[in-house]
Design goal:
It contains 19 helices and eight strands. The chain is α/β, with parallel strands linked by helices and 497 residues long.
Length: 497
């Protein structure tokens, strides 16, 4: 019996589960396969079967599950002003419901724990009791009111303001992206109109719709940011600098829901790029520049694009990441650690539920998880520990460059400097450096550390901008691999040195 047949024979359909004779027959088949007539396990055969099962590509299995996800986004248009008010009404209702559940948890713990009755038996009784039913009634009423209000606003949007629907102002657009970063997966699961679809925008801030040809550069923003975040008030932003240095290159901006799983966004980005290439066969090269989470989404798209042998990946020339937490972000690890401590404290454990409200995208930043296999098989909304996450190596043939930054303005080698990094991501994590199998082997000449630059200012720094433009202009012609690591200091300090 092959490992594939064994895998599926272990499953019993609903109809078979209801048929005792069929279930017994399947059970006997498994017993006959693993055990001899005298009921002594044949260990050699058993271990051989386990080895074959481990050879099954789990990414292929989770891909099947991802393809049939009922919560997959279907909206292809930007969030409008009417969508904003509809989503806000639903979001306010969900917020009240969530807070009601937290208040009830605290109330339940305060009442039952001093009596020594904080266990499953009395918790079940609580739900059936007067107080539990009261909280349930409050939640039901709030959900009913919120859903009805959202339905009224949806009807108004579809039938009255459909022809005059206004786009979101830039200030509200940025607010919506922040909301998506904080609770984007909740928005998708509840079909909230505030959930942002993944789209490409032009430098004018309009959805990309015209024909593309030649070389294109796609800028991918980070957590809680938007395609508008690349714009600088001075007007000399990275996209504009790339356009000035390479007038024949088209610069596009990715906008996406940063609260969703990074691997889901990576798969979606890979599909989006394949659609772009299919609709624009004259594209000759694609370069990806990602800031923070955007670099992880780009890496995830490359991983799944190569795994699925999609055509778009053959056109990728350069990958540049700016402060991306390839091995995790310090702040998310600290937050998770504090949440675990709070959860173990009497009368405060219920407050740990506040931490569960943060998005799955933020949770993925804990260890830089970019594959479905890092979370798909787990209960709840967690990720595998750092040492157990699945490696995601860089595709061959693509020139990769990593940028890190440090708050200090001088080159001072110390563990504290490396750990602090740009205040959110350590230097080693941004450069893909790790002692284990997860290390991303990028030559030192393809790495740059910018001192005196914080995490957010990586996309606005003049020095970073000039370095990215230099790499893109060179386009892999120079032998950067043989050069030492780049260390960049503030101009005043460089002159003094």
């Amino acid at each position: 019996m092959s490992s594939q047949n064994l895998f599926y024979n272990n499953r019993v359909s609903d109809s078979s589960a209801q048929n005792d004779s069929s279930y017994t027959r399947n059970r006997h088949e498994l017993d006959a396969h693993f055990f001899s007539a005298d009921s002594v396990p044949r260990h050699g055969d058993l271990y051989e079967q386990i080895d074959q099962l481990e050879a099954i590509d789990m990414d292929e299995l989770v891909k099947l599950l991802a393809d049939t996800d009922d919560n997959e986004e279907t909206i292809k248009t930007p969030v409008s002003l009417a969508d904003f008010f509809e989503g806000l009404a639903q979001l306010a209702t969900m917020g009240v419901v969530e807070m009601t559940e937290i208040v009830e948890s605290i109330h339940r713990e305060v009442i039952l724990r001093p009596l020594g009755r904080f266990n499953d038996k009395h918790l079940n009784k609580w739900q059936r009791g007067f107080t539990g039913r009261t909280y349930g009634t409050i939640r039901h009423i709030m959900l009913m009111v919120g859903n009805n209000l959202a339905s009224v606003l949806r009807i108004y949007k579809n039938f009255i303001v459909q022809k005059t629907d206004q786009p979101l102002p830039d200030s509200l657009k940025k607010l919506v992206n922040v909301i998506n970063g904080v609770m984007g997966d909740h928005l998708v699961n509840n079909q909230n109109a505030l959930a942002i679809p993944m789209m490409l925008y032009t430098k004018d801030g309009k959805p990309q719709s015209e024909r593309l040809a030649g070389r294109i550069v796609i800028l991918c923003h980070g957590l809680c940011m938007s395609h508008l975040s690349w714009q600088s008030q001075e007007g000399n932003d990275l996209g504009e600098a790339i356009h000035i240095s390479q007038p024949d290159t088209t610069v596009l901006y990715l906008d996406y829901n940063t609260g969703r799983r990074i691997s889901r966004s990576g798969r979606k980005f890979s599909q989006l790029l394949q659609d772009v290439v299919d609709n624009n066969p004259n594209i000759t090269q694609i370069d990806l520049v990602g800031h923070s989470m955007g670099g992880l989404v780009a890496r995830s798209a490359l991983f799944y694009g190569e795994q699925e042998r999609l055509d778009w990946i053959k056109r990728v020339g350069n990958l540049i990441t700016l402060g991306s937490p390839h091995h995790g972000a310090v702040l998310e690890r600290i937050g998770n650690y504090v949440q675990d401590i709070i959860a173990k404290l009497p009368f405060a454990g219920s407050l740990a539920k506040l931490g569960d409200m943060r998005s799955a995208g933020i949770i993925d930043l804990r260890h830089g998880s970019i594959r479905d296999a890092d979370w798909k098989a787990l209960e709840g909304r967690s990720v595998l520990p750092q040492d157990f996450r699945h490696p995601a190596r860089l595709p061959s043939g693509i020139k990769t460059y990593f940028v890190a930054s440090a708050l200090i303005e001088t080159h001072y080698e110390s563990k504290m400097t490396d750990l602090l990094g740009d205040s959110l991501v350590s230097v080693a994590s941004a450069l893909g450096e790790d002692d284990a199998e997860h290390a991303l082997f990028v030559p030192d000449g393809h790495k740059a550390v910018f001192y005196g630059v914080n995490h957010l200012n990586l996309i606005y720094s003049r020095r970073v901008r000039e370095q990215v433009v230099e790499w893109l202009l060179d386009n892999g012609l120079s032998d950067y691999a043989g050069r030492p690591r780049i260390h960049s200091y503030p101009r005043s300090l460089a002159v003094a040195m």
